[in-house]
Amino acid sequence: MASEFPSIQTGPGVTRQVLADHPEMMVVSFRFAQGAEGALHAHPHVQSTYVKAGRFRFTVGDDTFEVGAGDSFVIPSGARHGCLCQEAGELIDCFTPRREDFL
């Protein structure tokens, strides 16, 4: 349950909170202030992202696109990705397997 996990600042204007955890999957909330960035990075986990609120410009591999509340997409394992928050909001990410580095 989310109450088991603290909200952690991961960068300027960005916080992360694990919402649910299992060895095979993890659900995580990321909250962004307007203008905050999710730095370009890659990881071996498959990631599904749901935009709960706000507007974001994402880069996944060679593609750049904008998403808003209600949008969702999948980031393949190993794909370099990141985002710029255009309007304050929240992303709900699912990772499989779980992100051990978030525990």
Description:
The chain is an all-beta fold and 103 residues long. The chain has a single domain, classed as Jelly Rolls, CATH 2.60.120. Helices cover 0% and strands 65% of the residues. Strands 1, 2, 3, 4, 5, 6, 7 and 8 form an eight-stranded antiparallel β-sheet that branches. The relative contact order is 0.30. Pfam families: Cupin_2. This is Cupin. InterPro entries: Bacilysin_H2HPP_isomerase, Cupin_2, KdgF, RmlC-like_jellyroll, RmlC_Cupin_sf.
Q: What series of H and E elements makes up the topology?
A: EEEEEEEE
**Top CATH class:** Mainly Beta
Helical percentage: under 10%
Number of helices: 0
Number-wise, the strands total 8
CATH architecture: Sandwich
Q: In whole angstroms, how far apart are the ends?
A: 13 Å
Could you report the average pLDDT, rounded to the nearest whole number?
A: 96
**CATH topology value:** Jelly Rolls
**Structural class from helices and strands?**
mainly beta
Short description:
0% of the residues lie in helices and 65% in strands. By secondary structure, it is mainly β.
